[in-house]
Amino acid sequence: MGDDVRQGDRVCVDGKDVARKAEHEYYLLNKPKGYVCTVKDDKDRKTVMQLLPENAGRVYPVGRLDYDTEGMLLLTDDGELAFRLTHPMNEIPKTYLVKVEGSVDERSLAKLRSGVELDGKLTGKSRVKVIETNKKFTKMHVTITEGRNRQIRRMFEEVGKQVIFLKRIRIGEMGLGSLERGKVRRLTADEIYYLKNL
Fold first, then answer.
1. Which 3 state secondary structure label does DSSP give 130?
2. Quick count: other Cβ atoms within 10 Å of Cβ 56?
3. Start-end ranges of CATH 3.30.70.1560 in the chain?
4. Which of 146, 114, 108 is nearest to 127 (CA)?
5. Mean pLDDT lowest for which of 10-14, 28-32, 51-55, 163-167?
């Protein structure tokens, strides 16, 4: 008791090394549809916490994906990083794969890019890139820097289109890679560094 521990010291208790626990935990989840992004749900729906390994610790979802949206979700106990990634003032880009029925005309695309009015306030500018279109559906990559409630779905409703598939595929330039739907993994040191410096 009372001894100072300095960098490089080895600390033992009863002859066993005491390992220093990592300061924070960081996970990447490929969220499937049918899960809510809360720790507990008062409607008894499945939560993303049920997809984490048992030893994950007390981590929390960073932002939200709604029940019917799938894709990239970060979970951590690092409140500073969570705030950085979710606060609108930081303008962290998040990219979604969006599929709607039918085609989307240029006027609607221009409106989506320049901002639509939700709850009396214009959304920020977004990047919208059509990647596939035919008479039945249109697929797009949509990048936004806000995170309003059901924002992508509501943006498309404002131009008369119903979203039939929605998946977050990137935060900044970091994507899901080969992570399968419903699977989770720890972030690498490089990924953590990247997110902290976005």
1. strand
2. 15
3. 93-171
4. 114
5. 10-14
Q: Where are the beta strands (DSSP E) in the chain?
A: 12-13, 16-17, 26-31, 60-61, 70-76, 94-101, 117-118, 121-122, 127-133, 137-144, 163-171, 174-175, 184-186
The token pair at 178 is: 């080969």
Lowest mean pLDDT among 14-23, 27-36, 61-70, 146-155: 14-23
Q: Residues with catalytic annotation?
A: 66
Residue intervals of the chain classified under CATH 3.30.70.580 are: 26-88+173-196
Mapped onto helix, strand or coil, the DSSP state of residue 17 is strand
Under the banding of pLDDT at 50, 70 and 90, the label for residue 18 is low
Instruction: Take residue 130 and report the two structure tokens written for it.
Output: 């059509």
Please name every residue paired with 30 in a beta bridge, in sequence order, or none if there are none.
72
Is residue 20 pLDDT above 60, yes or no?
no
Give me the pLDDT at residue 122, please: 95
Token pair, residue 45, equals 């729906």
Q: Look at domain 93-171 and name its CATH class.
A: alpha beta
* C-alpha span between 120 and 189 (Å, rounded): 41
26-88+173-196 CATH fold:
Alpha-Beta Plaits (3.30.70)
Give the mean pLDDT of 154-171.
97
